[in-house]
Design a protein that fits this description.
This protein is an alpha+beta fold. Helices cover 31% and strands 31% of the residues.
């Protein structure tokens, strides 16, 4: 029996994370969950949580054959050290905190038709972007779950409206000079990107996204497991603040005739799989899964908003028949064990 370790950030997370994957373990693998601090490098042993005869038990394990990294923003030195013991190609999603500008640059060569203009933050260039697009999003390079995102909109009067999470402004600048004088202090020292705003299609006057979960299967090949949508809270542009999660098919069926909905889904599948191929070409990443967030504009065109290296699995809790979400990483781990 092969050992597979699931790496998480804290001991508190171990049980909930492991429980989900144990339910989908049909691969005859021994799964255990561990944290960075539970590795004994001298003994080459790991203290981890596992299940034995239906009971939760703390065990002393040898280094596993494969590690599945569910620890966001992992210390890369730790991952490299782990890779020297088990093989760097045996730890997947070892980088799961993506640099948004770097991802844009990688994808833009092949998928420019589906990417909003994205550039590093610069206060002079911010004004040019606002004049060109009227709407610009400022995002932390390494942000997630919409944290730190600011929306700026230039009005016909020349005023610039700024807001966190919601369309209604928290700050109103009378002109571009006021905006330039303040924007750096608002963003602080965190590296930011600026992204062209897209006129997003809405459902029931609320913004929604389409998240493609892309995962490798038992043959080590990419596949799209599902498409789900988060429907944002009323008046919010941030779909991380949502009221409802459902399969994207349900929303598309409400908005479009069947042939158009099918065409949109097919396009999103194709773009997502091409994104996966491009990510694989970058040797800095060894991914077994990630998600691609899309927005539709008013012409049914799909735009890639961002990629997420640690897909939020809790989104699927209320959606039936989604066991593949947890099964695919275990299948891919089994594939790696054989290599």
């Amino acid at each position: 029996m092969s050992f597979v370790g699931i790496l998480v950030a804290t001991r508190k997370q171990r049980k909930n994370v492991l429980k989900q994957y144990l339910q989908s373990n049909t691969m005859n693998l021994k799964l255990f969950c561990f944290t960075p601090s539970s590795i004994n490098w001298k003994r080459k042993r790991i203290i981890g949580l596992h299940q034995s005869n239906g009971r939760w038990v703390i065990g002393d394990f040898p280094f596993p054959k494969v590690v599945y990294n569910r620890c966001y923003n992992t210390d890369q030195q730790l991952i490299e050290r782990l890779g020297k013991v088990i093989g760097i190609n045996k730890c997947f999603n070892h980088i799961n905190q993506f640099n948004k500008q770097e991802i844009y640059t990688n994808l833009n060569r092949w998928l420019s038709d589906y990417l909003p203009a994205t550039v590093p933050f610069d206060k002079e260039n911010a004004v040019h972007l606002l004049r060109a697009h009227r709407e610009v999003y400022f995002k932390p390079c390494y942000g997630h779950q919409g944290k730190g995102v600011i929306r700026a909109e230039m009005q016909a009067t020349g005023e610039i409206h700024l807001g966190h999470h919601y369309f209604s402004p928290e700050i109103i600048f009378q002109d571009t000079q006021q905006f330039q004088e303040s924007i750096e202090s608002i963003l602080g020292s965190t590296p930011y990107i600026m992204q062209e705003g897209i006129p997003i299609q809405q459902v029931d006057n609320r913004v929604f996204d389409i998240r493609a979960l892309v995962q490798k299967n038992e043959n080590g090949l990419w596949s799209v497991t599902n498409l789900v949508s988060r429907i944002a809270t009323k008046d919010s542009f941030n779909t991380s603040i949502f009221d409802e999660v459902c399969l994207s098919q349900q929303i598309l069926d409400r908005l479009y005739p069947p042939d158009k909905a099918a065409r949109i889904i097919r396009s999103i599948y194709d773009i997502s799989l091409r994104s996966a191929e491009i990510m694989d070409e970058n040797t800095a990443y060894h991914l077994g899964e990630f998600s691609v967030d899309f927005a539709l504009d008013n012409n049914e065109h799909a735009w890639i908003i961002e990629l997420n290296g640690k897909p939020q699995k809790s989104l699927y809790a209320g959606i039936r028949n989604q066991s593949a979400v947890y099964m695919r990483p275990i299948q891919y781990a089994k594939y790696l064990c054989k290599r």
